[in-house]
Automatic annotation (TrEMBL):
It holds the Pfam family 23S_rRNA_IVP. CDD domains: 23S_rRNA_IVP_like (cd16377). The lineage of its organism: Bacteria, Pseudomonadati, Balneolota, Balneolia, Balneolales. InterPro entries: 23S_rRNA-intervening_sequence (IPR012657), 23S_rRNA_IVS_sf (IPR036583). It comes from the Bacteria. This is Four helix bundle protein.
């Protein structure tokens, strides 16, 4: 079975793995957050990898760049939601720092991908 181009991107693989981690961690959030932070975090994390995948399929650099910007924006949205989750004591300091480090790494990778696309 062949791979699509997005599956070969390190940033897509990391963002996909991050999404799995978000699903695992949010499954431990209070039931009252089922339609709040849990849903928001999950949707935003899926949005990062989905926009990377969709952007990689676009034929123009301008289209690709637009989707990479949306992926970056979703990653920043996740960071905001993680900060709130920590402030509400839904995340320990240790878990928060680990997730923050991962999202910072992903956003850095997205920036590099965007710049590479923007230079063509």
């Amino acid at each position: 079975m062949g791979k699509f181009s997005f599956e070969k991107l390190d940033v897509w693989q990391k963002s996909k793995d991050f999404t799995v981690k978000i699903y695992q961690i949010t499954s431990e959030f209070p039931p009252t957050e089922k339609f709040g932070l849990v849903t928001q975090l999950r949707r935003a994390s899926i949005s990062v990898s989905s926009n990377l995948a969709e952007g990689s399929s676009r034929t123009s650099n301008k289209d690709q760049a637009r989707f990479y910007i949306m992926a970056y924006s979703s990653a920043v949205e996740i960071l905001n939601q993680l900060i709130i989750s920590k402030d509400l004591d839904f995340l320990s300091e240790e878990v928060y720092k680990e997730l923050r480090s991962e999202i910072e790494h992903v956003t850095s990778m997205i920036n590099r991908l965007h710049k590479a696309t923007d230079n063509y």
